[in-house]
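Provenance and format

Records in this collection were gathered into a single text stream. Each protein contributes a sequence line and a token line. The two records reproduced below are adjacent in the stream.
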Amino acid sequence: MSFQQITAIAVFAGVMALVVTEKVHRCTAALIGAMVLVFVGVLDFEAGVACIDFNTLGVLLGMMLLVACMKPSGLFQFVAVKAAKIAKGSPWRIMVAFILITAVLSALLDNVTTVLLIGPMTLTICRMLEVDPVPFLISQIAASNIGGTATLIGDPPNIMVGSAANLGFLDFVVVNGPIVAVALAFLVAYLWVLGGRKLTAAASRIEAVMALDERAYILDRGLFAKSITMVGVVAVAFSFHEVLGVESGVIALSAAAVMLVVTRTSIEQVVTDVEWTTIGFFAGLFIVVGGLVETGVIGLLAQAIAAATAGDVVLTMVVLLWASALVSAVLDNIPFVATIIPIVLALGAGGTDIAPLWWAVSLGACLGGNGTLVGASANIVLSSMGNREGHPVTFIGYLKIGFPLMVATVLLANVYLLALFG
């Protein structure tokens, strides 16, 4: 192997080691790796910038800005309280209602944003009912990862896959939507068997929840109405972005810009809610993976996979599905997908139909996030909320529930993909 190939591999391995061990922040690790590649001459600056997927960054930034504008309206708190009252204060029904809300919002917004909004309300209602919030938090972790699988914008891996494969919002809904619905139904049944049927609360506590006035949580009625309207507009625009000939990143940023104008929200206030470290991590990671592409390392990996599977697309699909799920269960799925995308593109360089491979990566990476407590960002966010409230979600405690769930849902996805493409 050449010096450049060895250097690119070493930098990538070093960045991944820092991300996994958390010795330094993952954004710092990715940016350091990107700059090392430039300084040693593996990539020049222009080539490095060309490796960045600005459509993916645009979707992330636009949705973060949009949600930051909507948050002061009280929309998300209103939905949570309304759902608890519709469930008649029953802990099990509330859990199911929050599973559905979390899944739907994760599909329409993104799963990290969703759990940041729903998590605090869940803790409040559990406190009023005097029930352990840990099972609720675990159920929402699972629901966020499953729900986010359904759409282009629900989970960062889908944004990346959609951009690389030129797949639209409706493509994800049509292909991933059915298996997501099945996985959610399985999740509810699975939690019921594990102990959901035993969830109870005192009658006085249930009455306290039923006495809540959801309208009191609407902090700005004008903004509330505008937020609902904008969510609908964005969903429609994403659905038809291919017809409109507009990239999904442009739609997300345009929606954020319109919301900033019509709500007259202070831009200084909104930008503080943007997860700039996530944006920086993506940018640096794209350059680090770009080093592997430009030096030919990805091409060699693609040849190895093709040789191992004898070029059989269906077998490759199954391998990528399970590899994506198992690796994403123990590592952040974002760097894994960033690495696997060039490999899939290389596998299709000879004219092979690689459409099944994109769906295998999408389903494996997103559903695999349920495997462990560190499998996805939403997992860490919700577990941290529980820890701060004195209700820790332990790694082993989550593993006992999350890993079997992950295996079962990926197995369902495997059967589904074989039915579609086998």
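Adjacent record:
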Amino acid sequence: MNGPAERAPSLGGATRARGWRALGATLVMIKFQHTLFALPFAFTGALLAAGGAPSGRTVLWIVAAMIGARSAAMVFNRIADLDFDRRNPRTADRPLVTGELTLPFAWGALAAAAGLFLLSAAMLNRMTLVLAPAALALVLSYSYAKRITWLTHLHLGASLGLAPLGAWIAVRGEIAAAPLVLAAAVTLWVAGFDVLYACQDVTFDRDHGLRSIPSRFGIVRALRISSALHAGTVSLLLLLPLFVPRLGAAWLLGAAGTAALLIYEHRLVRPDDLSRVNQAFFLVNGCVSFLILLVSAIDLAF
């Protein structure tokens, strides 16, 4: 793995990745940069549970668990959706579609990621280990939700909502109302922006029998539903200080800032112009997660 990558012809028309190129293609396959959406919320859950900074060891295993769970979910999604990805022009350049990565490689990566998640849960505490299989089942089953229900967006949201809840359990070894409220806020937040993202595939989803809010209700109504989900997110964020009294002025300003960012996100996307969906998806939502982490740290510190 120290020299140029070896490459061999593949059935997908692309050259097969080896060595460091395989690692890079894997990161592309799982969209590793999207971990930034959930990881700050995991840190927020850990901060709230500890009433400040948790131990370095706990943080290390929380990060490892997050990477393992999300990577497993994304790899499994790519495997499950391979036939659809081959037919969708928007996803035709994904590494499994082009043949840059092979299915056996993907199954191996899935096993490694799931193993990392379960190991991390075992290293945290007994409750995280006991709940880990159920959590893994939730995040993996999302891959088939779109075949069953247009509520698939809430399934994805719940999968990411596990981040603050799991981090709280990792620190305290118990479940409480505060992380459940924060997990619900994350669930609605993710579901809201996933509805926006799904608007790009409304025609494809209808043609191939895939279910989503845009394909079920149309883009105009989907945008309204997304706005309602994000209004629920802000409401739950404003509710959280009732369960965590140390959250004060900074948190409330953060909730207001989140509302402003989400309003801006919805102004970027119009029924007749979806060209800025990716800008809304990456830029705004990355700011939301880091803003919430920042204001929670400020309130807990001062």
